[in-house]
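quick one
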Amino acid sequence: MPIKLRKEVRFAELLTPLKDYATEKQPIEHRYDPLTGRETVVTVGRFQYVKKNFESDKQAVSDVAEHTRENCPFCPARLERSTPKFPPNITAEGKFVAGESVLFPSLFAHMDYNAVAVLSREHYLAPKELAPERVYDAFRAGIAYLRRIRAVNSQALYASFMGNYFPLSGSSIIHPHMHVIASDLPFQLLRELLGRSKEYYSENGSNYWLDLIDEEQNSERHVGNIQETVWLTPFAPSNTYEVWAIDKRHSDLLDMGEEDFKPFAEGLGKVLSFYQDEQLSCFNFTLYSGPMGEDSSSHFRVGLRVLGRFGYKPPYVSDIWGLQAILMEGESYEAPEELAQKLKKYFT
Ligand SMILES: [Zn+2]
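structure w/ zinc ion:
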């Protein structure tokens, strides 16, 4: 098995005032993603100390939901007139609708193709109310949009769904929504995953993602399987509360039937239920694809990643500090093996 799970353990030594200045040795695990080599530190000594920062303040959540309701552009009373429409070559209806989901162009785009799917009529929903149904509907609307993009621009190969929930995840609007982005230029994560997966295939003659499943299926990081999707915590998580899913069969979102998105929505629902029980209010996720319309099945697989962010609670500390923002090092405050054990019961 060519996958190597490499970590180097070091210790920070200090005399801690919390234990009458006794000597304390805190383990720092430097871990390396087996595909990309990306570095991360797992600093388990901090988890109990920072756990409170992940928890949200119920009153603050309720206050911001109320304050933003009146002028919310995504609430049913304003959605039709306050949100953009697609040009007619994308859809004559101006928007894509699937179940409760309504998808339209982002008012100020982040990417050449950038749509926003509003997930609900409700202005505020707790994390566990977002999935599976509402996220599934948004996936369906997003796929209809991506098929139209491909019809008008065959060079637009790269696409991803992206969820940002609640302000500390980077979301400027409270009302539940997610993005769909696409371009002929892959964004950084996809460029890295695709490039490395291809190299791995040429070096080993096998698909990295299927090898990873073989490697992790019986490990302490395996969380569960839902139909053809495998859920696990990554060996080298770039953030706390990070969970991945890998589709065993598909490498291109556009090869998937609507039913094939259900396991992703269902698994995401389970993770969000866990987050809510942990009192998290902010998270990010992505569902990404190999190049649309190209056969990358030899070396790639569709995947989903979700991670928890610091909670919505005064004084609103950001969990992205210099280590990630400038030094580009990942950091997880909890070992992925511990996280997987807690998550497992949501998948049984
Ligand atoms: Zn709203």
